Amino acid sequence: MACKRAAKLRWIRQIQVRTVAIDTRGETAGKPSGEKKTRTSPALFYRQVVNELRKVIWPTRKDLITYTTVVLIFVLIMVAIVYGLDAALGWAVLRVFGGS
C-alpha cells in the first residue's frame, strides 16, 4: 500500500514540475503583450469571411440527406425514451402515493 502511495506522489510531483516548466517558458496562448489590437474594416472582415467559406468542403446532397435522416431518427428515439420514462415514472409515483 505504501508503495502505491509513494508512486502516486512521485507521479503528482512530475506533473507539477512539467506544469511549472511549461508556465515559466513565457509562451502564452494569447497575443503577445507588446502588440496593440487593431480594428479591421467591415469590408475586410466580409472578404475574409468569404475567403474562409470558399475553403469549406460542403456536404453533397446525398450526405446531407443521410445526416438529416440519422439526426431525425435519433431525435425520435430519444423522444420515445423520454416519453416512456416519463409515463413509467408517473405511473409508479401514482401507485406509490395513491393518486386518483
TrEMBL record:
It holds the Pfam family SecE. GO terms for cellular component: plasma membrane. The keyword Nucleus does not apply. It comes from Nonomuraea zeae. GO terms for biological process: intracellular protein transmembrane transport; protein secretion; protein targeting; protein transport by the Sec complex. Essential subunit of the Sec protein translocation channel SecYEG. Clamps together the 2 halves of SecY. May contact the channel plug during translocation. Component of the Sec protein translocase complex. Heterotrimer consisting of SecY, SecE and SecG subunits. The heterotrimers can form oligomers, although 1 heterotrimer is thought to be able to translocate proteins. Interacts with the ribosome. Interacts with SecDF, and other proteins may be involved. Interacts with SecA. InterPro entries: SecE_bac (IPR005807), SecE_sf (IPR038379), Translocase_SecE/Sec61-g (IPR001901). It is found in: Cell membrane; Membrane. GO terms for molecular function: protein transmembrane transporter activity. PANTHER family: PROTEIN TRANSLOCASE SUBUNIT SECE. This is Protein translocase subunit SecE.
